[in-house]
């Protein structure tokens, strides 16, 4: 299947605009999470625009694939992408994180079309994903469940309890994607809690493990295709990414996990993003 070079290029160009818009929104509200929003951009774009079945005209379509952004702090990028897909008007993005807005700091499915599950407290999304995948199998519904985890989030014990259940129930309709940017809130994964050989870890928990270049739309799409062919076990895609991708002073820096952006930094970020091709 794969994706044409032209289409991948189109989507990567769209990602550049998503980054510019998210930085602009975060600058305007002086709060929110730039680093993890920038790293997950291509993963979410590949899913919502190419690989996951989703229908903005009928967000609760029973045949939809379920996309769970377990690292809920990357909500600004999710919202930007949902607006582009047409789940709600782009004008709503101006209300990000403001009182009364449906676009809260962390995603909430009650008020925001396209949000599958409320997330924010790390470690919970995979358990919900396992439950959804199991119920789809019992219903003989061929939809897939995609669950996007942060790598710092893997420090949570609930992730590994959920992973054991996923393999016990042979959930081949579950595809986990790890945003492997090697950085969390207070430092690098290595400094806070080393994950060691993550691929081997997931193998040992009964997953089929893939890795991909997490800023390449083509590589993400190809790897999702391969994961969809796996039978009788869950899959994980370890997507190698860069926290703060696209803004040089944010890249790989935990300080930009959730820092407000001042005017000098804002101008630099926009200049750099506009200059990328
Ligand atoms: C249970 C819980 N503990 C702590 C936090 C605060 N917190 C928010 S994001 C974050 C770091 C997450 O790092 P990672 O999963 O690597 O996300 P990314 O690098 O993709 O932003 C922390 C500790 C939280 N949201 N939930
Ligand atoms: Mg991380």
Question: Features of this protein?
Answer:
277 residues, alpha/beta, Rossmann fold, 5-stranded parallel beta sheet, 10 helices, 5 strands, 10% strand, globular, binds thiamine diphosphate, binds magnesium ion, Transketolase
Q: What would you say this structure looks like, in words?
A:
- This protein has 277 residues and is α/β, with parallel strands linked by helices.
- The protein has 10 helices and 5 strands; from the N terminus they run αααβααβαβααβαβα.
- The protein has one domain: Thiamin diphosphate (ThDP)-binding fold, Pyr/PP domains (Rossmann fold), CATH 3.40.50.
- α9 links the parallel β4 and β5.
- It is globular.
- It starts with a helix and ends with a helix.
- The model has no long low-confidence stretch (mean pLDDT 97).
- Bound molecules: thiamine diphosphate (TPP) and magnesium ion.
- Magnesium ion binds next to loops.
- The site of magnesium ion has 7 residues, from loops.
- Its cofactor is thiamine diphosphate.
- Belongs to the transketolase family.
Q: For the record, what is the CATH homologous superfamily label?
A: Thiamin diphosphate (ThDP)-binding fold, Pyr/PP domains
CATH class: Alpha Beta
Residue share in helices? 40-55%
CATH architecture verdict = 3-Layer(aba) Sandwich
Q: How much is the average pLDDT?
A: 97
Helix and strand pattern:
HHHEHHEHEHHEHEH
> What does the overall shape look like?
globular
CATH topology: Rossmann fold
Write the layout of secondary structure elements.
Blueprint: H1 5-29, H2 34-39, H3 41-51, E1 66-69, H4 75-85, H5 125-138, E2 145-150, H6 157-168, E3 174-180, H7 189-192, H8 198-204, E4 208-213, H9 217-228, E5 235-240, H10 263-275
Parallel strand pairs: 1-2, 2-3, 3-5, 4-5
Helix pairs in contact: 1-3, 1-4, 1-10, 3-4, 3-9, 5-6
The structure holds thiamine diphosphate (TPP) and magnesium ion.
């Amino acid at each position: 299947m794969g994706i044409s070079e032209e289409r991948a290029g189109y989507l990567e160009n769209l990602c550049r605009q998503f980054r510019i818009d998210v930085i602009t929104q975060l600058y305007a509200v002086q709060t929110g999470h730039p680093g993890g929003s920038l790293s997950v951009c291509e993963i979410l774009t590949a899913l919502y625009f190419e690989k996951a079945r989703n229908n903005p005209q009928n967000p609760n379509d029973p045949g939809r694939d379920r996309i769970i952004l377990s690292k809920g702090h990357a909500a600004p990028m999710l919202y930007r992408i949902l607006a582009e897909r047409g789940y709600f008007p782009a004008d709503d993005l101006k209300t990000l994180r403001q009182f009364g807005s449906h676009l809260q700091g962390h995603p909430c499915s009650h008020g925001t079309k396209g949000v599958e599950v409320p997330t924010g407290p790390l470690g919970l999304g995979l358990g919900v994903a396992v439950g959804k995948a199991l119920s789809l199998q019992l219903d003989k519904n061929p939809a897939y469940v995609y669950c996007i985890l942060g790598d710092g989030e893997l420090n949570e014990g609930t992730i590994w309890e959920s992973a054991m259940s996923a393999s016990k129930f042979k959930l081949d309709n579950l595809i986990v994607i790890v945003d492997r940017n090697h950085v969390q809130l207070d430092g690098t994964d290595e400094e806070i809690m080393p994950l060691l050989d993550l691929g081997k870890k997931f193998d040992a928990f009964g997953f089929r493990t893939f890795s991909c270049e997490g800023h390449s739309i083509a590589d993400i799409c190809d790897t999702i295709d391969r994961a969809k062919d796996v039978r009788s076990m869950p899959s994980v895609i370890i997507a190698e990414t860069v926290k703060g991708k696209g803004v040089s002073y944010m890249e790989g820096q935990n300080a930009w996990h959730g820092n407000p952006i001042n005017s000098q930094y804002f101008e630099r970020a926009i200049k750099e993003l506009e200059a990328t091709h």
